[in-house]
Amino acid sequence: MKDCIFCKIAQKEIPSYKIYEDDVVYAFLDLSQVTPGHTLVIPKTHCQDIFEYDATLAGEVFARIPKIARALQAAFPEMKGLNILNNNRELAGQTVFHSHIHLLPRYAQNDGLTIEFTDHSSQYTEEEMKRIANRIAEELEGEK
Known about the structure:
One of its GO terms (molecular function) is catalytic activity. It holds the Pfam family HIT. The protein is α+β, with helices and mostly antiparallel strands. It has one domain: HIT family, subunit A (2-Layer Sandwich). The protein is about 30% helix and about 15% strand. The chain is built from three helices and five strands, in the order αβββαββα. The chain has a five-stranded antiparallel sheet with strand order 1-2-3-5-4, covered by helices on one side. It is globular and about 50 Å long. The two termini are about 30 Å apart.
């Protein structure tokens, strides 16, 4: 895509701190460095978000994540964990509309990254949970 900053980074039109590249993905340090080693992994082919991936691209991109994660772990032995984060569309926090996966090394509870899941389980009956599950399962059946 002509005006996509991540396409320009992958094509080396804009400098980046590259940590990995092959024919499918380009991985580089996020300039924000929420934690040391904060890395972005992008497909070289432009796609806006996860909803545009086909099975082949998804398999190829996500197959590279463990390799890069292990490199982060080896480079930062003090790392105590790793968050893998992928925001899709504006409401979910996506700010650059070229799909990208954040690899966020974790060093301590207060290292600059907070993620909180609120438990709403008490707000759903068993029947409502079944309806939700069935609705999604029916869509997956249509994908076969």
